[in-house]
Design goal:
Blueprint: H1 2-39, H2 46-75, E1 81-85, H3 86-92, H4 94-101, E2 105-110, E3 117-121, H5 122-139, E4 144-156, E5 165-175, H6 183-186, H7 206-216, E6 220-226, E7 230-238, H8 246-255
Helix pairs in contact: 1-2, 1-4, 5-7
Bound molecules: adenosine-5'-diphosphate.
Keywords: Phosphoprotein
Protein name: histidine kinase
Organism: Methylobacterium gossipiicola
């Protein structure tokens, strides 16, 4: 649990880091925009023109450096898919999630009796979960019930214009009693850097991580919301057969007809 909490704190630090980068980037864009506005003046003296041009060029260089730093940071986290039971993972991160939400939010978790295996990157799964739980906490203003419900062998519904997908999915619904999301914003929440939170609180990168992870794993994310009542995010991941434990595999191999 202690390690899980450290992980959550690390994720918050990563959020702050990327938020800081986004903020710096915005400042650079502001410099470029105002320089270009000056450059559009027909009466601008030649000496000032070349100064503004140099400023634009310099600022573009700094922006390029910033994005390449961000990219090399992102690349370090290559996906390492592994097979795990979603219900089992939910149990093992329960303490961490409670630490994230605080004492005034009750987390009500329901998992099926049968195991529900998926193949995905485990740390990205936990990051996605934390991102959605942090959003739920913020939407609930720190109090209420947060419901986590895992369903096995679900079908992936048609989402955002895509057809319903066949196959079996593990569906993890995260339902909050928060402020909800206005219908006209629903289509924008997954965009990188889209946030309605105040500066320094939101990065707008949480849900883009969630949807990126879901799609790279062969799944998707659905959202339904009722303003004033709450929001439900459902993470779909393709279900796989349970892995055969190594010792059983060995038995089968040695027991099966040696030539
Ligand atoms: P951030 O949390 O940094 O703002 P996200 O990408 O995680 O970035 O979320 C983007 C936006 O989507 C939030 O700013 C908020 O407006 C909205 N949102 C996400 N989850 C919820 C939720 N559970 N309830 C209400 N609004 C939400």
């Amino acid at each position: 649990a202690e390690e899980a909490l450290r992980h959550a704190q690390k994720m918050e630090a990563v959020g702050q880091l990327t938020g800081g980068v986004a903020h710096d980037f915005n400042n650079l864009l502001t410099v470029i925009k105002s320089s270009v506005e000056f450059l559009q003046r027909p009466d601008l003296p030649a000496e000032r023109r070349s100064r503004y041009l140099a400023a634009v060029s310099d600022t573009v260089d700094r922006a390029a450096k910033l994005t390449s730093q961000l990219l090399s940071f992102a690349r370090r986290q290559a996906l390492k898919p592994e097979v795990f039971d979603v219900g089992e993972r939910l149990a093992s991160v329960a303490d961490m999630l409670n630490a994230v939400t605080g004492a005034r939010i009750r987390i009500d978790t329901t998992v099926p009796d049968v195991p529900c295996h998926v193949r995905a990157d485990l740390s990205q799964f936990e990051t996605a979960l934390v991102n959605m739980v942090v959003n739920a906490r913020d939407a609930m203003d720190g109090a209420g019930t947060l419901t986590l419900r895992l369903t096995c062998a679900a079908t992936l519904p048609g989402i955002r214009g895509h057809a319903e997908a066949s196959g079996r999915f593990a569906a993890l619904a995260i339902a909050d009693e928060g402020v909800g999301i206005a219908p006209d914003l629903l289509s924008r929440i997954f965009e990188p850097f889209f946030t309605t939170k105040e500066v320094g609180k939101g990065t707008g990168l949480g849900l883009s991580q969630v949807i990126g992870f879901a799609k790279q794993s062969g799944g998707d994310v659905d959202v339904t919301s009722e303003p004033g009542r709450g929001t439900t995010f459902t993470l779909y991941l393709p279900q796989v057969e349970a892995p055969v434990p190594a010792e059983i595999r060995r038995e089968v191999r040695s027991g099966g007809g040696d030539r």
